[in-house]
Amino acid sequence: MSETLQKFVSESLQKPQVMQKPQTVLTGDWALFLDIDGTLLEHAEHPDAVSVSGELRSLLESLDHKLNGALAFITGRSVAAVDHLFQPLKLRAAGLYGLEHRLLPDDDVEVADEPEDIAALADEIEAEFGRGQVYIERKGRVLAIHTRAAPHLLPRATQLVEQALAVLPKGYRVVAGNAGVELLPLEAAKGAAIRRFMDIAPFTGRRPVFLGDDTSDENGFETVNDAGGISIRVKPPAQTTAQYGLAGVAETLAWLRGQL
To answer: Looking at residue 215, which CATH number applies to its domain?
Structure first.
């Protein structure tokens, strides 16, 4: 079993950790960064099988107003996918783990094409599994294999992606998540995305708060901790760098409502 898969399996078998809930009330001195799937929305078998309620849109709009715009999504989804999901609401966002940035709500986003070698790998994985068992999400330079509908296929999916590292150009890494595996460029990191926002107004000089639920969010927690901020993991496993925990999406939304 690969090191990536061993780490994922070990974390999956651990009972969720009971952690202290954050008591902080957000004011104008804070900046808020939010993961989406598993944090604001429950996970689904397919990324397109989720929906955003009017209540959630209103909550986010109110938080953005309270923080004078110092709120941003930090997500593995593309910015275009985020906009489609939350329309007509548009907020600042880092998509694809920071490969895409929209520093202002009305800014354009530069979208990278899918490299030929990543496209070939995606085709190979689709050919092995067939459609319907796993969902292959092609996100430009990021390739995600979702196995929530067929969790027994995660080991093989992880093996295929890790084998591809040997033939791909240098500069990629494999990240196992709650229900799938992703191939990412090394520079795709939520911590770097948060730092980029913290260097510009209206985030500059504030203390960051970051909420996330997955392995890919740990890098963001570390960045926020180093900046003297607050890190919060939803459904925290036994091992996490987050300072606080929330039991699930419902408790996360309740905590956010309590900030208004």
So the answer is: 3.40.50.1000
